[in-house]
Fold:
Amino acid sequence: MSRKPLLLLPLLAIAGGLYYWQSQASDSAGDGQSVLYGNVEIREAQLAFNGSEHLAEVRVEEGDRVKAGQVLARLHTELLRRTLEQARAQLNARQAQLDKLLAGSRPEEIAAAKARLDAATARARAARDTWLRLQSLLKRKLTSTEEVEVARANAEAAAAEREASAQNLKLLQAGARAEDIAAARAELASAKAALALASQHLADAELKAPRDGIIRDRLAEPGEFVTPQNPVLTLAFTSPVWVRSYLPETLLGRIQPGTPVTIHTDSYPDKAYPGWVGFISPSAEFTPKNVETPELRTRLVYEMRAFACNPDGELRLGMPATVQLDLDRDHAAAQAGPRRCGD
Structure:
């Protein structure tokens, strides 16, 4: 038996498949419909903590559905809580210092300063009277020059003491200097910033889901030391979902972003998913750079994304899908087509 027929069978199958793919768009275009084939794709995010610490717990497993804002994992927080308490205490101290400066001296402090001034005034008057009396006695040679000099020194000292008491009373009555108040305000602002930073660090000890999705990978376990460079979980978003397919160049002028489509899968053959064309690549793929013949021009393909409504989460990453396009819709109707689920 000759082996040539056996070798020709795979070649004929490949050629038949290529012919079917190329003829699919042209045949269906005549019927006002076009069918493309592709795979479902979704967006994913690598979730990591915004801080470095030992992992305390992971609250989800692979395959779990999560909601936006749900806590997925948590770090150890003992040190972070102590830092927050310290920052709060420093803030209270800075606030009390500013309040003290703004309130000024208490009435009791001013009254005490006035009493000290009165006492200093009395001592200064007595010292001056003693000095004047000794001066008159010196003229009658009833005292010595040394006693007069001592009395004069005492009078001058008492006068200086009285002046110091008077200036202290003025300071208490005037209150704090503007520069001291400004410095206290700056220290208070710094303490508030430190408290906010400590609070943010504590909040960052919880890893939350940014959007609704499904946990795809669990990359760390409790007890591990994690950093912002080490993802803990991989989250697959449930929306948006799209089918990546390739649009032949012959249909490029008949399809616009916004064109409604219908998507089918082998997993749910009796169910149709409404959608729309969301993206058409501006550049061709899988073709030579120089296209010189009509035959080569028909092989140009452009990446296209057909976004799908997936309320029940049945469309999954990598699932083969069929995209059915309506070629009879005009450009205006295509551009006015649905841009999101529910339209």
Summary: The CA atoms of residues 268 and 314 lie 9 Å apart.
